Structures are given as C-alpha cells and as structure tokens.
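Exercise 3.2. Students should predict the tertiary structure of the chain below and write it as structure tokens, then compare their answer with the key that follows.

Predict this chain's 3D structure.
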Amino acid sequence: MSVDTYTGRTPSILVDRFSHLLEMIYDAALDARKWRGCIEEICYEFSANYASLVIRQSPTLQEDSVIFSGSADRRIVDLRNPHLAQSPFSALPVDRLVTNSDMCPEAQWRASSYYQAWCAPRGMFHVMAIDFSGAGQSLYGFRLTRPESAPPFSNDDRALCERLVRHVRRALDLHRSTHEDRCIASLYSEAMEQLMVGVIVLDESGRILECNAIAREVLQAGDGLNIVGNRVAAAYPTDNRKLQRFVAGALQAESTQVYVDAMAVNRPSGRVGWGVVVRRLVADAWAEGKHRPAAAILVRDPESASHPPVKLAQQLFDLTPAETALSIQLANGLSLEEAMAALNIKRNTARAHLRSIFSKTGARRQTDVVRIFLNSVMLLGTSSRVSSSSASPSVALNTCVAPYRERRQAASV
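Answer key:
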C-alpha cells in the first residue's frame, strides 16, 4: 500500500480510526456541542487546514446560516465576508462531491476575486466540497481546504469524505428527529403546567424519576403529599395505603392494560384535598434496564387560582380590560361581592360589566361565565414556569432543549 508523502500515512483509513470518527459523529447527533470537536477531528484526518459543516444553508451563507467549523490550529476567523456570495461552492448539485479543479481551471481559480479576497489570505488553495440532502428537505454542506503547499485531495480522500458524509447525514437526521420529539414533548409539558397539573414520573420500582415545577412545589410544601425514600407518600396512613396500592397496581399492570385510578388526598392544612390520578405509562418495546418511566402521578389543587393572560381573554370574547378582570375573579370562585371588593368597584359597575359579559360570551348566568372561562383555551397561553432544561423524548416533563444555533467561529468556504 502506498504512503502519502505529505501526510506520511497510508491513504486507506484504519478500521479503528474510522470507528472513532463515527463515534464522534453520532455523539454529536445527541449533543450538538460536540460538533465542533468532531469537525476538528475530521479536519485533522484529512490533513486539512479548515473544515466546515453547514447546518443551515442560506443564499449568502451569512446571517441565517448555522455552521460548525474546525481548523488545524483552532484559529478564530471573522466570517463577516462580503465575498462568500461569489463562492463557486455556494450552489452545488446535491450529493455530488467536487474540488476546485472540478469547478474551473487552476488559472481561473487563481484569478477569481473569491480566491484572491477570501481564500488566499487564509491559506486555502485546495478545496473539496459537497452539499447533501437530509430528512424534511434539509440541505447541508461540508467543506475541506488545504494550503497550496499540500497535495490536492486524492481519490482516497474523496472516497473517505463520501463515506463520512453518509454518516453525517444520518447523524443530522437523527438530531433533527430527536429535537422535534423534544419540542413536541415540551409543548405537552407546558400545556400540563398551564393547566396547573403536577406530574410525577415513577420508575419500575416506584421511585421518583422526574417532576415538573408544579409537582415539585406540591411535594416541597409537604401539605398531604411528601417524599419518603424517593417515593411519593401521603401524610395520613389511610390515604397512603390507598395511594401505594394504586401505584403498585399501575406498576404491575399488563403491558396491554390501561390502568388509571383516582383519589383525593387529605391535607393537614385543612384545605380541600389534592386531586390525584395514578396511571400506568406504556414503555417502549425496546426499553430495558432499570430506571425507566413506568407510572405517573398527576396532582391538581382544586383550590388553585387561574391567571390566564388578560390579552387572550379579551381576544377570545371581545371583552374590555375591566370585564376581563371581573370574569377572571368569578372564574377563580369568587362571588360577585368578593370580586367587587377585590377589584374595588361598585355594585352598579359590576352588574353593568356582568351584563356585557353575558352578552359577549353567550352566558345566561354567573356559573356559565365560570364554565366558559375554565373550558376555554386561555390557560394554554400562560407562560410556562419551567426553566430551560433537557427534555426526555419519552415523557413530556421538561422544556425543550433550545435549538442549537452555534454561530460559525472558524473559516468556511
């Protein structure tokens, strides 16, 4: 097998080395922060001085682009480049790998304003590039460069690049799919938060895996529901025996069985008891091992007050701010007199507002207003109280991981 005189290595990559690169690619699919290190490793493998993975293409590869780049010496290059739009590599045929010699003769390449203004000052002479498609009509790009003192990219280099790009494509599709799952899970999670439902996820042994913000507040308050040995327990023995029986039933239910039970949990404070639902979670057929989601406890406070966005209430029912404020007070269980006191308005004013509310919502009596407000979509517009964190694709508990948008900090062709 011949040896590349520039790199001192055989052109064919060793299996262990190729496996290492694949590990880095698929690790980056699960954690976008690892793409930079992955691209730097690929840059080294090709003895390139720059390598770039274009995640989001834009006509000029500027403001809307998301690019992960690596360089041989990890230099940070300012990419506010007015010449990028002139690049011959900006609109390649999809899935066709090319080099600068494929695009134009050497003399034309040297004479181009793009090469002279952008590539030459950065030591980029030999270029290998490919644009490739992914799921959902995504378009990605991959670029490698070498200085003029290095040999051009060989057929072995081209073959290796094409092999790696196939895996990069799969890794990006995997990231996209996982990210979409997390966004959907986040939407469901936020809906639970906005409807003021606490969610506690248990593993196969009944231990707590995760809680949303409302559930954490309930458990930390210790008013009827507590954490004992990383398990949910009720304060009163009778309630606790019933709760543990429901949890055991959910954990032991057959995979084809729908298991749901409900109970009220008394509170030492004397307030109305927690409404609790225990249900089995259907595990993925591939889910094995310990600490997987197996059951959920849903908790709601019957006395909790809703705080829907005033703007949404006005938009839904065409109410004035004063009418909206009165409607929200009534929906939270206050009598008309109590609402008048809370809003510091007179009886005649309150009754005038109420008549207008009846007319605009179609309600005939005060209880109708409460029902209409509580059953409307207003609460789903409430800002989530959960802080940004990773979300489990299998259970909608936490907010979605923010979409990765790592601005390019090294050279791109």
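Discussion points: The radius of gyration is 30 Å. Residues 15-181 form a domain with the Beta-Lactamase fold (CATH 3.30.450.80).
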